[in-house]
Design goal:
The chain has about 450 residues and is an alpha/beta fold. It has 20 helices and 5 strands. It folds into 3 domains: about 130 residues, Rossmann fold (3-Layer(aba) Sandwich); about 120 residues, Serine Threonine Protein Phosphatase 5, Tetratricopeptide repeat; about 140 residues, DNA Cyclobutane Dipyrimidine Photolyase, subunit A, domain 3 (Orthogonal Bundle), CATH 1.10.579. The protein has a 5-stranded parallel sheet. Helix 6 packs across helix 12 and helix 11 runs antiparallel to helix 12. The structure holds flavin-adenine dinucleotide (FAD).
Length: about 450
């Protein structure tokens, strides 16, 4: 452990938890800075994140612009610079007594933290804040399924379901940070960093805490009570819409869980929501943490690999190329509508995501190609893509976190889904009309 340096400030390197509230890494930095009678500075490295395009940068920068204001109101400095964290953070930490960081579960995030910790002269501590129960506290291995991780999470839930109180800043940071990018015009920042602009900005609510809280208030006030019944219906849209905000750390899962837990919604609705927000989401974090190949086909469970391999030569009724998938040009209006929703809004309802992924498996040349196509499209268009949850979601379509089902062509024993299943759940015609227009009437296959 490096010795506490004689620095001029404590630096919080913000990466995963891009917020000024309910952020344990930030509060740790403030408490440690207070003890040293030093100010806190937050540093952010605006890097070329693998696979990110203008849609993602814009959403993230909208959030960071707001975070900068909220930090300033607490007397905390903020500096955002263009460049990879391995270069930007050690430069910002040159005069720091201590570096505090947050925790990310993906390979690139872990690699950044390792390199940064090696390159700074001061000690570095990392504080986990984007799950309710810290991943290593829950389990020491990749869990098999929701049913195996659920009791482990529930055992520890009460001790973690507590608010994080903001620590008052003893020594406010003064003046503007040197060479910080101005965030007033996020489009200009996107141009400056050369963000890939092949994907237009997403239609729908923008990024940032205020937008997240507005959606959450509306969800708790009007939809939560019916979540157990309507949560699976893409037309009624009974979900919270929190995933892009969670992905960029613009809101904390703990804050959402506490707000939902305190609501007067019926117990079954609250439980159904917390099952998704905590158990299912944290199963994905567990999968990424303990399985570094989380986004690779060959890390699927052995039974799934075996059965998909046995059926790889089965004739496919349709076979689409990546370009056809991307253009939403399949024979299936349900699939095309889901793709249209994602391309336009950067969002897709969970029920449609499952169907969407299953059909890519069914109508691709090979399961490997299907896996790559689904990951590519999800990461490119979804605002919440490039997330442990996305990699687990795609892998689920191919058997991860699931069990073998009755054997059938192409899928083998991997769970199958069809459009009749959708019709039983919701008004498919209304969904098609929403995303494909009124002409979609009567085009159901
Ligand atoms: C093929 C496929 C791809 C997916 N890609 C992503 C992705 O890139 N990013 C992502 O965050 N989620 C992904 N999911 C999981 C899920 O579809 C989304 O988290 C959910 O639709 C987000 O909408 P919401 O916030 O309104 O959810 P709500 O129903 O309001 O749920 C609240 C929160 O619980 C968590 N949650 C909900 N459903 C799931 C689930 N099935 N698995 C894990 N966590 C869940 C999310 O964090 C969500 O924000 C994917 C699922 C599949 C099948």
């Amino acid at each position: 452990m490096k010795k506490l340096a004689k620095g001029k400030a404590v630096l919080y390197w913000m990466q995963q938890s891009q917020r000024a509230e309910f952020n344990p890494a930030l509060e740790t930095a403030v408490a440690r800075a207070n003890a040293l009678r030093l100010p806190v500075h937050v540093g952010f490295a605006l890097t070329a994140y693998p696979g990110a395009n203008r849609r993602h940068y814009r959403f993230m920068l909208e959030g960071l612009r707001e975070t900068e204001r909220r930090l300033a109101a607490r007397g905390i400095g903020f500096c955002i610079r263009q460049g990879p964290p391995e270069e930007v953070v050690p430069a910002l930490a040159k005069n720091a007594a201590l570096l505090v960081g947050d925790v990310g579960y993906l390979r690139v995030q872990r690699q950044w933290r390792e390199t940064v910790a090696q390159r700074v002269a001061c000690p570095a501590v990392f504080v986990e804040g984007d799950v309710v129960v810290p991943v290593a506290e829950v389990s020491d291995h990749a869990e098999f399924a929701a049913r195996t991780i659920r009791p482990k999470i529930h055992r520890r839930l009460a001790e973690h379901l507590k608010p994080i109180r903001p620590v008052s800043v003893a020594v406010p940071a003064v003046g503007l940070a040197k060479r910080s990018l101005a965030l007033d015009d996020v489009e200009a920042v996107c141009r400056r960093i050369g963000a890939d602009d092949s994907v237009p900005a997403a239609a729908g609510p923008g990024g940032g805490r205020a937008a997240a809280i507005r959606l959450l208030d509306r969800f708790i006030g009007h939809r939560l009570a019916d979540y157990a019944e309507d949560g699976g219906d893409p037309v009624r849209d009974g979900c919270s819409g929190m995933s892009p905000y969670l992905h960029f750390g613009q809101i904390s899962p703990l804050e959402i869980a506490l707000r939902v837990g305190k609501s007067d919604a019926p117990r079954n609705a609250v439980d159904a929501y917390l099952e998704q927000l905590i158990v299912r989401r944290e199963l994905s974090m567990n999968a990424a943490w303990y399985n570094p190949g989380y986004d690779r086909y060959d890390t699927l469970p052995a039974w799934a690999l075996r059965t998909l391999d046995r059926h790889r030569k089965d004739p496919r009724e349709f076979v689409y190329s990546r370009a056809q998938w991307e253009a939403g040009a399949t024979h299936d209006p349900c699939w095309n509508a889901a793709q249209a929703e994602m391309v336009r809004t950067g969002r897709m309802h969970n029920t449609m995501r499952m169907y969407w992924g299953k059909k890519i498996l069914e109508w691709s040349r090979s399961p490997e190609e299907a896996f790559e196509t689904a990951t590519y499209l999800n990461d490119k268009y979804e605002l919440d893509g490039r997330d442990a949850n996305g990699y687990a979601g795609v892998a689920w379509c191919f058997g991860r976190h699931d069990r073998p089902w009755a054997e059938r062509p192409v899928f083998g024993m991997v769970r199958y889904m069809n459009a009749n299943g959708l019709r039983r759940k919701f008004d498919v015609q209304a969904y098609l009309e929403r995303w494909l227009g009124p002409d979609a009437a009567g085009r159901l296959v």
